[in-house]
Design brief:
The structure holds two protein chains of two kinds.
Chain A: H1 2-11, H2 14-37, H3 45-60, H4 66-88, H5 93-113, E1 130-131, E2 135-136, H6 140-163, H7 165-175, H8 177-182, H9 187-213, H10 223-236, H11 243-257, H12 263-278, H13 283-297
Antiparallel strand pairs in A: 1-2
Helix pairs in contact in A: 1-6, 2-6, 2-9, 2-10, 2-11, 3-4, 3-5, 3-9, 4-9, 6-9, 7-9, 10-11, 10-12, 10-13
Chain B: H1 6-37, H2 44-62, H3 66-87, H4 97-119, E1 135-137, E2 142-144, H5 145-167, H6 169-179, H7 181-186, H8 191-213, H9 223-238, H10 243-263, H11 271-282
Antiparallel strand pairs in B: 1-2
Chain lengths: 298, 291
Amino acid sequence: MAALFAVLPFVIYPRFGMLLLCFALFACAFNLLIGFGGLLSFGHAMFFGMGSYLSAQAALVWKLPVELAILTGAGTALVMGVVAGLLAIRRQGIYFAMITLALAQMVYFFCLRAPFTGGENGIQAVPRGHLFGVVDLNQPLAMYYFVLAVFLAAFLLIERIIHSPFGQVLKAIRENEPRAISLGYRTERYKLAAFVLSATLAGLAGGLKAIVSQNASLTDVYWTMSGEVVLMTLLGGMGTVFGPVVGAAIIISMQFYLSELGSWVTISQGIIFVICVLAFRRGIVGEIEAWLRRRRGA
Amino acid sequence: MFDISVPALMGQLTVGLINGSFYALLSLGLAVIFGLLNIINFTHGAQYMMGAFVAYLLLEKTGLGYWWALVITPFIVGGLGVVIERTMIARLYKLDHLYGLLLTFGLALIIEGAFHHNYGSAGLPYSIPQSLQGVQNLGFMFLPFYRAWVIVASLAICLATWFVIERTKLGAYLRAATENPTLVQTFGINVPRMITLTYGAGVGLAALAGVFAAPIYQVSPQMGSSLIIVVFAVVVIGGMGSIMGSIVTGFGLGIIEGLTKYFYPEASSTVIFVIMAIVLMIRPQGLFGQR
């Protein structure tokens, strides 16, 4: 995958490749929560969007260097993740989804009114600056490889988390929470930790996106964004390692190349949702894995 | 802040009661559907929007006015709901409840996208029916007839739904099937059909709310999505355990929102979410919910 992404900017438009990586990271962060913790958040746009706003604000107004600006975004998402997580993990299943959606809508209304976000206009002309004061990120390729490095680091971190003892306990909670409790695990703490990790990485993705696209806007924090990340993960395969990356690639390409079709993008996203739920719930990568397993078994 | 203008306060209270009517009608439908189908119907907002559009189209294409729309629309939109339940939702009952949420979310995107494609995002006007135009001077405020009608009619429908579910034989079957569908089926009651009709009825309530809303708000494709998120918060606050609970919570939160609009307008769009956060801290199962 790393090699594929390394040559990607020579095949496609680098800016598109960068956006794709940002959303792939967002989807991977989301997958950590649903795929391994079994918690469906319908409000992840609040972390992505606030990460995006705060990074943009830090780079443009506070004049922080780009790496600190992105960390500001991720840090904001971390704090929000703790607060939202403490509230949301009090309920499970569909209530969890409704609560996260409602909290995200509250954040959206806050962003609509707060003076620093620029309301409908968003924050424009965010500078890219120089990485560690040396590398000029206004060069598309330099920016691309920086984004790729951050993405790969985060991806490996998620991979590490999934296979750690912590990740195993998380899977146990997803499969059978009462049993995990009876084995002596404080399941609330594990769920909260997973939520905060996922939120922080989503904020990181949002921060990167603000620097890449050089703006932060209300779209990043709106409920449609929460829906899109759910769709990317569902389409690619919930609980698979590469699924979210594949899903993000498909959905972002669709938006990028079909953007003139307007409402048809929404309609086709809805249709993909319906087809995924009714026909292939394991997602693209999940189905391929299952197919390979059957062949090996046969 | 302390010199209170009575007409303005009463005006906001009326708006609050109107919003409360919609919260109550929609959360009632969600609760009834959830009770029997165990899914959260994300399409509810889109179905409310369809209700308003069907009323609009009935007037534009066939000349049938408000009163006809009030009767016909719930059946049209509820009928579409029945089709959706039979062809799609029914396949998901054995799966995790989350798939129902994802499916209905996808359906909501399709419906909204389709209406957006055909009618754009600008709102379409729908005028108040002749017989309900006009304003009554109550001395302390001016009350438009139409708003009074919406509040009274919604309250009546909510109470009628409560009566059907809690006090009739049909309602007893419904409550029994919520508790234990297999057992009810062994008594010779067609539970799958009951589930289908319940979904249709819940959707019909949403469509009815849409017709009520058409003359108050502009008829637009996105009118449902923002409302449904607030209604989700209302449902979390009230808990889906009781029918009366949904009604009380819906109207109560509408009033609180109206009061906030008067006393501290900056917070009016977020007050319900803040209340949700507080309720989650104190009583996570919701005000009327059971563990």
